[in-house]
Write a structure and sequence with these properties.
Layout lengths: L2 H21 L3 E2 L9 E5 L3 E5 L2 E5 L7 E5 L6 E9 L5 E8 L10 E7 L10 E4 L3 E4 L5 H6 L6 E8 L2 E6 L2 E7 L7 E6 L12 E10 L3 H4 L10 E2 L7 H6 L13 E3 L10 E4 L2 E4 L13 E3 L34
Parallel strand pairs: 13-16
Antiparallel strand pairs: 1-15, 2-5, 3-4, 4-15, 5-14, 6-11, 6-15, 7-8, 7-14, 8-9, 9-10, 11-12, 12-13, 17-20, 18-19
């Protein structure tokens, strides 16, 4: 083959390589050995970048520390490798916040857990400094077994709309639907170790931290049906619930589908809709002072029923089923 032809092939290969790189959708959040674009909040743990790795080291007496992106992100796919000391706990915050009016700037929001303990909830979802656990791995033994002690572990997080889904080392872990936060910063946590001086300089390390913010639907991974889908949004059905045939008995906004017992319409008094919750007004214990029981307009035979309820102190209530009006009292 002549030199001219060899040069032409080399140029074409170079062009293909450059073109492929130009089309690469991922953006690295750590470039070189710089923490430019990041800031530390709350604690005094030590952070540094070395050989492309972000290294966090514990400091006794410090609260939880967070290395946070200056930029905020809404919908994204995030991937990273993490190595953590087996005696330490850590996590990665997503869509998180630090506001003076909230606990004097304490970092709060979704945390994707890094948990080397026997509990093994790595890639579960915790709500830092707010609602606590949103998605544990008690019902996902495959994900619990996926974490590798004293090794690098690969995480993938898809936060798209109300959906937050996670994988650890390629194994599906969490599948959460929640609508509290739509955007916020990303942060790397070094957990507090109390005041024990023997726990100084325990390490958690991250590398290959990259994010995708465009064409997300095209890059979503398949989440198998055996990973339980949990929704914290009241009066809504998850995709899995709809596939299983569940129906909403109440829409959270109106009295549609309900009427008063022995009445042809919903009671005019005694009931309110407050913050997507159907509430019985206080009656002082006198049943005659409120609007009475309510029943579904539609009748049901065989069924499974699921709902959330809350009682104030001293309240008395109940759920009736297979009701025949005029015969069921109490």
């Amino acid at each position: 083959m002549r030199n001219r032809e060899l040069k032409l092939i080399a140029i074409l290969l170079l062009f293909c390589s450059i073109n492929t790189n130009a089309q690469e959708p991922w953006t690295s959040l750590i470039r070189g050995n710089s923490l430019r674009g990041w800031k530390q909040l709350n604690g005094t743990a030590k952070y540094e970048v070395k050989d492309g790795q972000v290294i966090g080291r514990t400091v006794p007496g410090s609260p939880n520390s967070f290395l946070c992106t200056v930029k905020e992100y809404g919908d994204f796919i995030l991937e990273f490798d993490v190595w953590v000391d087996p005696s330490l706990n850590s996590g990665v915050q997503i869509r998180s916040h630090s506001m003076k009016e909230y606990q004097n700037g304490r970092v709060h929001g979704y945390q994707i857990e890094i948990d080397p303990s026997e509990r093994a909830w790595s890639a579960g979802i915790y709500d830092e400094a707010r609602r606590a656990w949103l998605y544990t791995l008690e019902e996902n033994p495959a994900a619990q077994k996926a974490f590798r002690q004293n090794q690098w572990n690969r995480y993938r997080i898809e936060a798209i709309g109300h959906s937050i889904r996670t994988w650890i080392n390629g194994v599906p872990a969490a599948n959460l639907t929640d609508d509290l936060d739509a955007s916020g910063f990303i942060a790397l946590q070094v957990h507090s170790v109390g005041n024990d001086p023997s726990k100084a300089n325990l390490e958690v390390k991250w590398r290959d931290i990259r994010i995708l913010t465009t064409d997300l639907e095209k890059h979503q991974w398949f989440m198998p049906g055996w990973v339980k889908e949990i929704s914290t949004i009241p009066n809504t059905l998850t995709r899995a619930e709809m596939r299983e045939g569940w129906q909403l008995l109440w829409d959270g906004q109106s009295t549609s589908g309900w009427r008063g017992a022995d009445q042809n319409k919903f009671p005019q008094k005694g009931w309110e809709i407050i913050n997507r919750t159907l509430t019985v007004n206080e009656s002082g214990g006198a049943e005659s002072s409120h609007g009475g029981d309510i029943i579904t307009v539609k009748k049901y035979a065989d069924f499974e029923l699921s709902l959330d309820f809350r009682l104030t102190k001293g309240a008395n209530s109940g759920i009736k089923y297979l009701v025949i009006e005029g015969l069921n009292q109490g």
